[in-house]
Specification:
It is a single chain. By secondary structure, the protein is an alpha+beta fold. The chain contains 13 helices and 18 strands.
Length: 397
């Protein structure tokens, strides 16, 4: 059975201190910041690249990254690309074939159907790039124009971190295991690596393989919060476990703020989340809606000392269906940087209060939100039920 993380306290983990004074962790934003870093990493690769992402699109951004990967392969760098078969279903066969012909080792995670399984409820949701076991980008940013932005539209609001520390080696091992279909065969122990003055850990979530580290980390962070919780949440529909931890934190007087989508690429989910607004406000949460672009970020800061960024959404699908990966950071300095960024986002948001919510919450709007909530919850129950069936099949005595 996989080791389950049950506490956030650093002294309860293994430690592995690095010796390279250049080790560090940096906050990365969607848009040019992320993609210029990614191109630079690929260009400097000497031996091996692992790129794993849910969505890879055949657009300007996708073609730019593909061109960089092909150049790396031509330099005899081993390039491994793992894409989700559902998230990247729109990628043309000709695009994929061209990558393979240029020497890229490309695989799609789990076709929707096989002879024995129906895979739609369990998707590979990683957004990771690792180079030479030394440097990595991990977060919530897919490879597509909407994450880069255009002259007419801002990039979707999202985050990643750049790691130049021993945690990158852990990530490359995990990526290799997933690429070669050994995702559950090797265990990375719960190590906190040094990254300059910060401590960095890799969190996995794959309920089918009994890995619930991201869900555990969020829950424990909320349970142990002393002063403040700030969350950027796309597709924000926390399940009972995380919702209970959040509500208890609010009852203890913890200042809790959520930054949510004013506009969304999945309007049904946004309306389902809005159905919960009165409940959030009744628990004294502050709600801010970002309306300048789609909110796609999955990040949080607790007490200005613990942070997490990654692919994990605060909903049941991420908890029990998809394969997710986050980075956790124990660092006052990094938490302050991320918290300041959240504050800048908040300054450009619209705050939702009970008064403003009543103004737009007419009977038909309330009914539409309730119907959306029931539909989304039912869909998530169905999608997470399918992996549960596979779990029972695999582990039945």
């Amino acid at each position: 059975m996989e080791h389950k993380r049950t506490t956030l306290k650093p002294h309860d983990r293994l430690f592995q201190n690095g010796t390279d004074n250049t080790e560090h962790i940096e906050l990365v934003h969607s848009g040019e910041d992320y993609f210029l870093r990614l191109e630079k990493l690929i260009a400097k690769a000497e031996k091996e690249i692992h790129l794993q992402t849910y969505i890879f699109e055949n657009d300007e951004t996708g073609n730019r990254i593909a061109a960089c990967l092909k150049k790396a392969a031509q330099r005899k760098v081993k390039v491994y690309v793992l894409l989700d078969a559902y998230g990247s279903a729109a990628l043309p066969d000709s695009f994929a074939d061209d990558m393979v012909q240029h020497g890229i080792l490309l695989r799609f995670f789990s076709p929707l159907f096989s002879l024995n399984n129906f895979y739609i409820g369990r998707r590979m949701h990683h957004k990771i790039a690792v180079v030479d076991k030394k440097i990595a980008l991990i977060g919530g940013i897919n490879i597509a124009d909407k994450y880069y932005g255009t002259g007419a539209a801002e990039p979707w609001l999202d985050y990643a971190v750049q790691l130049n520390c021993p945690a990158a080696k852990d990530l490359q091992i995990l990526c290799s295991d997933y690429f070669f279909k050994k995702g559950s065969s090797k265990k990375i122990p719960p190590v906190l690596h040094s990254a300059g003055s910060a401590l960095v850990g890799i969190l996995q979530n794959d309920w089918l393989q009994r890995k619930t580290e991201v869900c555990d980390a969020y829950t424990n962070a909320f349970i142990h919060a002393k002063k403040e919780i700030v969350i950027v949440g796309s597709y924000f529909l926390p399940g009972s476990r995380i919702a209970k931890a959040l509500k208890k934190a609010c009852k203890r007087g913890i200042k809790t703020t959520v930054i949510l989508a004013g506009i969304s690429d999945v309007p049904l989910v946004r309306r389902a989340t809005e159905h919960l607004y009165f409940s959030f406000l009744n628990h004294h949460m502050r709600i801010f809606e970002w309306n300048k672009s789609v909110v796609h970020g999955k990040a949080a800061v607790v007490d200005n000392k613990w942070s997490t960024i990654g692919s994990f959404n605060l909903n049941s699908l991420s908890c029990y269906g998809s394969i997710e990966m986050n980075v956790e950071v124990h660092s006052v300095n990094f938490a302050k940087i991320l918290r300041a960024d959240f504050e800048m986002v908040i300054s450009q948001c619209s705050e939702i209060t009970k008064g403003s919510l009543r103004q737009r919450a007419g009977i038909f709007n309330k009914l539409g939100n309730w119907i959306s909530y029931q539909m989304v919850r039912t869909a998530m129950l169905f999608l997470t039920f399918l992996p549960h069936l596979r779990f029972l099949k695999n582990y039945r005595l």
